[in-house]
User: Which sequence fits this backbone?
């Protein structure tokens, strides 16, 4: 199954309701967006255990794509494959093809790839440095030493954090709250202007108010970069994403516009998962 499946006919399933919040009605015409990633027959094994079993998926540019599915289904492995973070695990084997703007990521310099495809992890991981130096870190190691103050401010503004920290940039990043630290990590990733931002359950340790700030941030960021987010929160996927992929046991079960997947899923397993009957 790939991006073309988004326009396939659906089975006559009852609409899925997620609490009191309506699913967004905005739907992007497929012909107006292009794939940023084209993933074909992706298989990933850790030692003898195959975690992904031949996944085919197009990730579209300048939208938010959510990856959902039960724990252990391969969501994070798929996400980490996009910038080859799976390679940091000894014994990992990857087969298949991942194209970023039609360029094979496995033939790219990995440092340049990760500059283009940034990542934010489940728990905030600021460096033991000041707020300023956290954001400036990537710029410095990439040889950018001019106008650092302006670049740091720009990144913090993009991460909706500037107004909260502008008077304390010299303070340790550890002095920030958990939600602020997570937005700081997003600012750090944004500082080098990535084309794609990968987020692995970025709100799992955050309260609802901070989660809402991050979701609002995603809406603002997708105009300038492509976003892929792993989440266990069905309401979050429904609120914050344009497209949703449902993975189960290392296989892609369904990939649709978020509105269609949550209202008229084409596979009974998808309906069972998003309504809480399993997973």
Assistant:
């Amino acid at each position: 199954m790939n991006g073309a499946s988004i326009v396939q006919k659906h089975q006559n399933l009852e609409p899925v309701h997620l609490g009191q919040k309506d699913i967004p009605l905005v739907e992007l015409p497929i012909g107006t967006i292009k794939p940023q990633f084209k993933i074909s027959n992706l298989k990933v094994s850790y030692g003898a255990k195959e975690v992904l079993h031949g996944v085919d998926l197009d990730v579209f540019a300048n939208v938010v794509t959510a990856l959902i599915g039960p724990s252990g289904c391969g969501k994070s492995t798929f996400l980490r494959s996009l910038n080859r973070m799976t390679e940091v695990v000894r014994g990992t084997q990857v087969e298949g093809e991942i194209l970023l703007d039609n360029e094979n990521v496995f033939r790219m310099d990995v440092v340049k790839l990760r500059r283009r495809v940034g990542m934010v992890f489940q728990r905030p991981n600021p460096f033991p440095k000041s707020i300023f130096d956290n954001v400036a870190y990537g710029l410095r190691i990439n040889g950018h030493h001019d106008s650092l103050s302006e670049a740091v401010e720009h990144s913090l503004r993009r991460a909706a954090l500037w107004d909260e920290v502008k008077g304390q940039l010299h303070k340790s990043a550890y002095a920030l709250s958990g939600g602020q630290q997570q937005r700081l990590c997003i600012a750090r990733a944004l500082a080098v202007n990535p084309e794609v931002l990968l987020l692995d359950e970025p709100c799992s340790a955050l309260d609802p108010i901070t989660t809402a700030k991050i979701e609002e941030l995603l809406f603002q960021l997708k105009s300038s970069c492509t976003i892929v987010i792993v989440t266990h929160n069905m309401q979050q996927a429904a609120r914050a994403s344009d497209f949703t992929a449902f993975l189960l046991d290392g296989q892609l079960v369904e990939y649709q516009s978020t509105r269609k997947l949550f209202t008229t899923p084409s596979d009974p397993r998808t309906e069972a998962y998003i309504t809480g009957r399993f997973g």
Summary: Residues 208-221 form the longest helix (14 residues).
